[in-house]
Amino acid sequence: MYSKSYILLFFANIVCALMIVFSRGMEVKADSSNLTRSVKLERFASLERVITYDTIEQSYCIRATDEDVENLMRIVQAEAGGEDRRGKLLVANVVINRVKSSKFPDNITDVVFQRKKNVTQFSPVANGTIYRVKVSEETREAVYSALYGEDVSEGALFFMARKYANPENAQWFDSNLVYLFSYGGHDFFKR
Fold it and tell me: What whole-number distance in Å separates Cα of residue 91 and Cα of residue 88?
């Protein structure tokens, strides 16, 4: 009746048809599987966008309260308000160097308002200018730079405006301290 080759051809066609049907079904499943995976990947990507990382906050080179920072800004403005950024930075550096030194008080406010033999260390404290100044943005920036460690002072612990200094005080600076350099209207010294 039918030859072997026709029967084999018939079964081969059936197998091919089944393979086509199953492969198309698998393609649809594969597409939906890929969509699911794609959605999952998008969710992971979204999660990555909201992950927060710890940031390293820069800290001051010395311990300082808000009051200390305000007093440092005021003394820098009062002493060096007419100076450029570097002149302001130098005055801030001197105050910070004193805080770091064992020869002076250990915080900014006490350094700024220190009295020796009933004499203040900074003339704006004695004459009240420290309370009347309006702190400029340049002074704020210079003070924060000093607090974050920028130091151009060569270790200076003292400064004076020779132009305005009492000759007796100027003589004391010259006789008892080591002159470092002059900048703007100030001479800078260390012990």
Answer: 5
